[in-house]
Amino acid sequence: MKAEDLKLIVREKYGEIAKQNDQSSSCCGTSSCCSGVDYTVFSESYENQKGYNPEADLNLGCGIPTEFAHINTGNTVVDLGSGAGNDCFVARELVGETGKVIGVDMTEAMIEKARANAEKLGFNNIEFRLGDIENMPVSADAADVVISNCVLNLVPDKAKAFHEIFRILKPGGHLSVSDVVLRGTLHAKIQRAAEMYAGCVSGAIDIDRYLEMMKDSGMINIKVLKDKKISIPDDTLLNFLTKTELKNFKESGAGVYSITVYAEKAI
Q1: Cα(100)–Cα(126) distance, rounded to whole angstroms?
Q2: Do the bridges between strand 100-105 and strand 126-130 make them parallel or antiparallel, or are there none, so unpaired?
Q3: Three-class secondary structure assignment of the chain
Q4: Domains of the chain from N-terminus onward
Q5: Alpha-carbon separation of residue 228 from 77, 183, 233, 257 (angstroms)
Q6: Closest by Cα among 39, 36, 31 to 14
Q7: Is the pLDDT of residue 198 over 80?
Q8: CB 60 within 8 A of CB 81
Q9: Which of 100-109, 148-157, 227-236 shows the highest mean pLDDT?
Q10: Beta bridge partners of 258
Q11: What gap in Å lies between CA 11 and CA 107, rounded to an integer?
Q12: pLDDT above 60 for 129
């Protein structure tokens, strides 16, 4: 599948999620919208995070990148794939009134939802920009910290995305990214399934390749700070595999993992 076709799939699926009236009726909780893909199998609870806004939490993440981001008062933070603004609002609590948070997302409906959430809260140091992570609408050397939550695996050209992150980071800046990666080989039928791509699975790549791309972009001191195996329900996998194929896939030792990675740009 071509890169632009993949991006269109992601825009459509996440646009559908953004337009739902509430979390209980979102694509995350129904099979009719997302062909049986349950996005919530990756998510973690934000309820104990300062700055958490339930209206901005669509349960689409696979970690809590701000936990490891070392965000300080006055920092400029850029959140890639900011969705309805969940991680941005947590980051805003950490940067305070003197800091700035910029959310970047390629789905117009998500940008609209995030801006509405920010307006309700009266925040004037958060902005949401429509744009592509492979070509970000952010100046070079602009960010003290870059965060992202279960989004880079959806980007077709991950190497370019990491180079863009390096470009927008200030010298001495750093990133904290929660994402989905693989250990072993994903079954070819899952790899080809558009719904699983939009559900963060088939766009994932091998963890060693993922970390190597990050290193090739210029990042240093790369550390995996959290590593958790994701259990994808058999009912979901059986939308794409036969029972025999599912059995063989499980016996292969291949697996889907959520990780949180920290890395720095040299001074």
Answers
A1: 6
A2: parallel
A3: CCHHHHHHHHHHHHHHHHCCCCHHHCHHHCHHHHCCCCHHHCCCCCCCCCCCCHHHCCCCCCCCHHHHCCCCCCCEEEEECCCCCHHHHHHHHHHCCCCEEEEEECCHHHHHHHHHHHHHHCCCCEEEEECECCECCCCCCCEEEEEEECCHHHCCCHHHHHHHHHHHEEEEEEEEEEEEEEECCCCHHHHHCHHHHHCCCCCCCEHHHHHHHHHHCCCEEEEEEEEEEECCCHHHHCCCCCHHHHHHHHHCCCEEEEEEEEEECCC
A4: 3-264 (3.40.50.150)
A5: 25, 12, 16, 5
A6: 39
A7: no
A8: no
A9: 100-109
A10: 180, 228
A11: 5
A12: yes
Q: What is the pLDDT of residue 29?
A: 36
pTM of the model as a whole = 0.86
Per-residue pLDDT, 37: 58
pLDDT at 2: 80
Mean pLDDT of 250-264: 91
Structure tokens at 52: 């958490």
Selection from 18-27, 38-47, 158-167 with the highest mean pLDDT: 158-167
